[in-house]
Write a structure and sequence with these properties.
The protein is mainly alpha-helical. It contains 19 helices and no strands.
């Protein structure tokens, strides 16, 4: 019973720590959105988003997806942490060398080619920070990990104020802000976390490297497929519709990322708990309890964002009186909220693959989402514009979730209340349609549906949190 209570206590404690960090990071981060929409044009923001998405694609390629190997093997007492971190860094340096040779290919792109050197530097520091911060979390230093995230975001905001508002460097300033904030994060973690002592060429180990790569290599195409699902629509929009529309679409993604506050604060703690409890016979029950509350919380949060999507968008972008069209993003945001909900569910289920070391399954299920996204983007964007892109993204994540839910329960069985889950999904979809189309009495209907969502799910959240708090005592 003590062990059982301990795992819930640790999960709740870590979630609360990550939650504080995510809350502060998101609040500070929304200052960036205001800066971008008020001091950059639609075209400049579109280009900035393309640079950001390109680096997101390159990070798993350049690091050989070592972030996942670092958290998985770094928490395994059978492996020396010095070997884990040193070999992860060695893989990164190899990947950056390959990227240096291939970087002239980036120059061929007429959208981001002029930023090739800055993009390379941005990618290097982003990769290094990714591995270093993940290693810090794998060592159980969750408070330091949280503080680092907040400080990094603050530095990024300050750099944006200096470079974009003050020096008017536009896209160059956007990229420099990431470079400097990532560099500051690395220095902070080295100084406060003592990370430097874990990086030593004497700990290069071919056997450990092979084991880490055998786990992570399958996640490289997996991340590429997730990039296709989450980011390729912006490249489709640029070439099929235009830069201005892509800038608007990029803003429509900002409010849905509020859901990442819910999921990231939890998932970072959950990933650690699921790995630690991998040999526990009660793991299936653990998953069942946590998934039930997690899904309830996500549906409540999604309904709340959809209810206030228009005023929140106007706060971030203005009303268009400055001649910019960013305010139009509110129409597409509700559909992308649904996309984000199911992306969060897919992420939760991926913890089964990490815990059971089934990277291949993560790849094959991500392929479902990517193929669905590409086909629907080709069919819908040219005809329906941004609506087509948003719908394609939503269907892609729903398809992946359904396949993963069936697949993961072959390895860790846990019950899912399908009736409640289906009802929640339908209500949120109806809310999304109402918020986008703005029929008469819009806010009356949205408020009623929000109350229904809350009444269905709130009790489940309170019950589980109460149980966890009781176990903490």
């Amino acid at each position: 019973m003590t062990d059982r209570n301990g795992k819930y206590k640790k999960l709740l404690g870590n979630t609360m720590i990550f939650g504080v960090g995510q809350f502060l990071t998101k609040i500070i981060g929304f200052l960036l959105v205001i800066i971008y929409t008020h001091f950059m044009s639609e075209k400049e923001l579109s280009t900035s988003q393309l640079v950001y998405q390109t680096v997101n694609l390159l990070v798993p390629l350049v690091t050989f997806s070592m972030r996942d190997a670092v958290i998985r093997f770094g928490m395994d007492k059978g492996f020396d942490n010095k070997k884990v971190y040193t070999n992860a860094c060695a893989a990164l340096f190899l990947g950056m060398a390959v990227l240096a040779v291939a970087s002239p290919l980036i120059k061929l792109n007429d959208k981001i080619g002029q930023f090739t050197l800055l993009l390379y530097i941005y990618c290097y520091f982003s990769c290094f920070r990714d591995i270093t911060s993940t290693f810090t979390r794998s060592r159980g230093m969750v408070k330091l990990f949280m503080v680092d995230g907040v400080l990094t975001t603050i530095v990024q905001v300050l750099c944006n104020v200096i470079f974009i508002i003050g020096l008017k460097l536009s896209v160059n300033g956007y990229i420099l802000s990431f470079i400097i904030s990532d560099l500051c994060s690395i220095v902070f973690l080295f100084l406060m976390g003592g990370t430097a002592r874990f990086a030593d060429t004497r700990y290069l180990d071919a056997k450990v490297m092979r084991k880490m790569l055998s786990f992570s290599v399958w996640l490289i195409p997996t991340y590429i497929l997730w990039w296709v699902t989450s980011s390729s629509d912006q490249w489709f929009i640029v070439h099929m519709v235009g830069d201005v529309e892509n800038g608007i679409y990029g803003i429509s993604y900002k409010l849905p990322t509020l859901l990442m506050f819910v999921t990231t604060m939890f998932y970072q703690a959950w990933q650690m708990s699921s790995i630690e409890e991998r040999d526990n016979k009660g793991l299936g029950k653990f998953y069942q309890t946590v998934f039930g509350s997690y899904s309830s919380l996500l549906f409540i949060a999604a309904a709340g964002i959809i209810l206030f999507v228009k005023p929140l968008t106007f706060i971030l972008t203005g009303d268009g009186s400055d001649g910019k069209r960013f305010y139009e993003a509110f129409a597409f945001t509700p559909i992308l909220v649904i996309s984000m909900v199911f992306q969060c569910f897919c992420q939760f289920l991926s913890s089964v693959y990490t815990t059971t070391k089934r990277s291949v399954n993560s790849l094959t299920t991500a392929l479902v989402a990517a193929l669905t996204n590409i086909v629907l983007n080709l069919l819908l964007i040219r005809k329906f514009g941004l609506w087509g892109a948003a719908i394609a993204t939503a269907f892609s994540y729903v398809a992946c979730f359904l396949v993963r839910l069936w697949d993961v329960r072959r390895y860790i069985w846990f019950k899912v209340n399908l009736a409640r889950f289906g009802l929640n999904s339908i209500i949120v979809m109806i809310m999304s349609f109402i918020a986008a189309k703005e029929p008469p009495l819009k806010y009356v209907w949205l408020s009623v549906l929000f109350v229904i969502i809350a009444s269905i799910n709130f009790g489940n959240v309170v019950k589980t949190v109460g149980r966890l708090l009781k176990r903490r005592r």
